[in-house]
Amino acid sequence: MEDHVKQRIEALIASSPVFVFMKGNKLMPQCGFSNNIVQILHSLGVPFETFDVLSDGEIRQGIKDYSDWPTIPQVYVKGEFIGGSDILIEMYNSGELRENLTVALAS
Amino acid sequence: MVHPDQVKDAIRHALPDAAVEVEDLTGGGDHFQVKVVSGAFAGLNRIRQHQLVFNALKGELASEAIHALALHTSLPSTPLNP
């Protein structure tokens, strides 16, 4: 991956404690999996920022290489990749996500 | 278009001990629900477990022949061959 792409990705991730690379945006998710993430974070009342990978092919491909994760959405908390739709749903259902976010956002 | 058996074979090639369930969610051969049970997941967090399965399907995912993959991974409840 080219340096400038990596720098753009890192700047995006650092721009908010909770950051989501998704298809579409908070108001109009363009894919069921991306929508899962938006609904989960809304239900937890967690502030988050997003980037619409459909608007930028460079980021869309770069983010897959960045975390060695071939699918979208991708969720980052305090700069750390914590998973995509499936993992976030599992963590949400087990209560682990609320716990992790509470700890991360408190520090 | 990818056939469920192709998905199953690719995962089992990478994880020979795995029990794999593959469901084509739309019938279009590009949206799959996959469940994988394997001893290879031992000691790995969810991200690493999913990455093992993704790596087995690298080509299909990169080309977006598989457009959507809902994935659930777990360890065998009883040790496979103690």
Structure description:
The complex is a heterodimer of chains A (107) and B (82). With 107 residues, chain A is an alpha+beta fold. Chain A is 51% helix and 16% strand. Chain A has five helices and four strands. Chain A has helices at 3-14, 32-43, 57-66, 85-94, 96-106; strands spanning 18-22, 49-52, 74-77, 80-83. Chain A has a four-stranded mixed sheet with strand order 2-1-3-4. In chain A, a hairpin with a 2-residue loop joins strand 3 and strand 4. In chain A, helix 1 packs across helix 3. The longest helix of chain A is centred in the N-terminal third of the chain and has 12 residues, at 3-14. The model of chain A has no long low-confidence stretch (mean pLDDT 96). With 82 residues, chain B is of the alpha+beta class. Chain B has a single domain, classed as GMP Synthetase, Chain A, domain 3 (2-Layer Sandwich), CATH 3.30.300.90. Helix content of chain B is 33%, strand content 24%. In chain B, strands 1-2-3 form a three-stranded mixed sheet. In chain B, helix 1 (4-14) crosses helix 2. The longest helix of chain B has 11 residues, at 4-14. The termini of chain B are far apart. The model of chain B has no long low-confidence stretch (mean pLDDT 92). At the A-B interface, strand 4 and helix 4 of A face helix 2, helix 3 and strand 3 of B.
